[in-house]
Amino acid sequence: MNYLTVHWKKLIASFLLGSATLGAATLGASEFPYQITSSIKGYVTKTDPTNLPTDYLVAGSQNVIINDQEKVESRAGYEIFGAASTTATAVTSDFSWKHSGATSTAPSEILLRTKDNLIQYYATSTFEDLWSGVSTTSPVRFATVWDSSEQMDTLLSVNASSTLMKWSGGQATVASTTSTTVGINEEIGKSRFFISGTHRFRIKDSGGVWREFSHTGIGGGVSTFTGVTPDPTSFTFGTNASIVQAIEFHANTPQAGFLSDTISVLNNQVWIGSENSRFVFVSKDTSYTDFTFSSPRTTGQGAKLTLDSTTVGFMAPDDNKMLVFSGDDRVYQVSFEISSSDTGTVELPRIKPLLVSSGQGAQSQELIAKIKQAVVWISNNNELVELGQVENLPSPQAIAISDPIKPDFSDATFTNGEIEFWENSIFITDPVDGKMFIFDMSKRFWQPPQVLGMRRVSVFGNQLYGHSNSVPETYTLFMGLNDNGNPISFKAHFAYRNGNRRDILKNFDKFFTELYLAGNTTVTVELLYEWQGAKQITEYDLVGSNTAFLFTPNNSAALGVNPLGTNPLGGQLQVAEQSPKYRRFKPIVPADFFEYAPHFESDSDDGAFQIVAFGENLRQSGNIASKLNQ
Q1: H-only helix segments in 367-498
Q2: I want to staple 176 with a disulfide (CB 3.0 to 4.6 A). Which of 183, 226, 434, 553 is the partner?
Q3: Count of alpha carbons within 13 Å of 103, Cβ hemisphere only?
């Protein structure tokens, strides 16, 4: 054999070896390296799942979380908070109020919600009724303001009427009653009751019915309401009966006939808008019921603004400006600017339209939120829009950050939904479909949808709570291993895999999986060959109780770190150090394919798992797709 022949054989061998290279791995004649995926970068549905990198979750995924270690794990469940209910009406409004003072009976944070025609507040272990005159077709909206006469912050609310409501949050227990007095076990002022003027309170009688009274003064030191009517002794109250400040009302505020739908406060000035009027009213900074102003207007006075459409909502991005969302596609930046005139110093409102596209106005007040230094909202185009300043441009710019999961958002119905920020993530409810969308602000990626059935969400006591879209119940979210006693359906669907070669047939005969797997959990692996399993679907189970594949921690070993990450949405956190590791090389009957997709699913009761790594020993097939070459 001459040199030229040897040389050409080497060249041909090199060419053949090169053509068998899939991605970064070289496939030899007797060795097939595993194509391992061990970290996940997010959830994407806009991009074709056959064009995505293999380290992304795709459409079909649900109820799993990408944790801080970029591993996919089962999410935690939710548990009932307060009493269960048998009626079938959703929670329509919510508010978590961190106020300025607290006692043992008036906690520093109060959670409120509305259902049917009731405003309720959470007291110890259940939600108590506060007022029964709520509109059943419009949400109640809340804002807090400083009350200089009472020297405490006060909760204001509006509900599609011309009446402004206020509440102090006062709560205490009854010590004694006479025909005209009610004594409490606490100091009235320190228990957050109104003390200046005539006010009302409610006492729960021994039969569980709330009775309402008015009083004209404070006596008996600092713990007795005087001038009480009607006669408290005509009712029977148990020992240490609950007493609470009643909601009070300011009729025709800010103006007779003006239906107040939304409210906000900036620099102690109350802003009120209506879904039926182009006017926006602003109160004085010294009185939340006085909306008057002089001409020219001076600093701190009220104001009446006229916009191009009705008001949807408010949000203050900083201490100097208020964003007013108006109509379908208008956002105004309103500020008060001090200037000089012939009559002295005046403060004039400046209304500046922001650059937003058609349909990029907000859907509702609840779907607008302040997230750190940004303002976000759900637009009428079903996008999550983030308002930020772009360098070299004079106006903040609205950018749709929901674009990676645009199909999900296009299909969602956000009516009556809400945005909340907790643990560095944005939570958005889609009440009609029972879904919750989560955007990780630190890593700027989307989590898969969570099927939770919530309408509203609240952060209360540094914990996230959900309010049902179907029953008047509230739940502690991401707690426990089931959804209020019901199993969770986990689905982790990954992007298609082709070894970075779309144009050649491949196969494999082993599929590797490594998981943390609870003993009561079974995870089903599905391998879909070709688009949506057009060629075939191979399925098998990973059983947490199968000791043949388990590596159980030694009780004397100290892990030092939690192997399941620190993300509080994961379901295994409470059993992390006890969870065995499951490792398996599953033999697979080779089947030629261009691309395939791995799915992991589980419906186990109280199931818990985390996917650490997976992949196949990919190799080039010796076959060609002859029927495609015509």
Answers
A1: 406-411
A2: 183
A3: 16
In sequence order, the β-bridge partners of residue 524 are 541, 601
Q: How many CB atoms lie within 10 A of CB 214?
A: 14
Angle in degrees, CA 356, 376, 159, rounded to 5: 100
Cα(606)–Cα(575) distance, rounded to whole angstroms? 12
Local confidence band at 196 (pLDDT 50, 70, 90 cut-offs): confident
Residue 501, SS3? coil
- Please say if the pLDDT value at position 318 is more than 60: yes
Contact 251, 266 (CB under 8 A): no
Those residues with Cβ within 8 angstroms of residue 438's Cβ, 6 or more apart along the chain or in another chain: 425, 426, 427, 428, 446, 447, 450, 569
Q: Higher pLDDT residue, 509 or 397? A: 509
Among 98-107, 119-128, 472-481, the minimum mean pLDDT is found in 98-107
Sign of CA dihedral 326, 328, 333, 339: negative
Q: 102: which residues sit within 8 A by CB, 6+ positions away?
A: 108
- Average pLDDT of the residues in 378-386: 96
The C-alpha atoms of residue 376 and residue 416 are separated, in whole angstroms, by 17
What are 227-285's pLDDT values in tens digits?
Answer: 999 999 999 999 999 999 999 999 999 999 999 999 999 999 999 999 999 999 999 99
* Contacts of 496 by beta carbon, 8 Å cutoff, 6+ apart: 49, 50, 52, 54, 531, 595, 596, 597
> Vertex 78, ends 77 and 84: CA angle to 5°?
145
- For residue 22, name the pLDDT band (cuts at 50, 70, 90): very low
- Does the pLDDT at position 398 exceed 90? no
Q: Could you give the CA distance from residue 597 to residue 592 in angstroms, rounded to a whole number?
A: 14
Q: CA-to-CA distance for 66 and 76, rounded, in angstroms? A: 12
Expressed in angstroms, the distance from the first to the final Cα of the chain is 39
Please give the model's pTM, rounded to 2 decimal places.
0.91
Peptide bond between residue 254 and the one before it cis (omega within 30 degrees of 0): yes
Phi, psi of 532 (to 5 degrees): 55, 30
* CB distance 512 to 620 below 8 Å: no
Residue of 319, 322, 332, 321 lying closest to 278 (CA atoms):
332
Structure tokens at 264: 């906000």
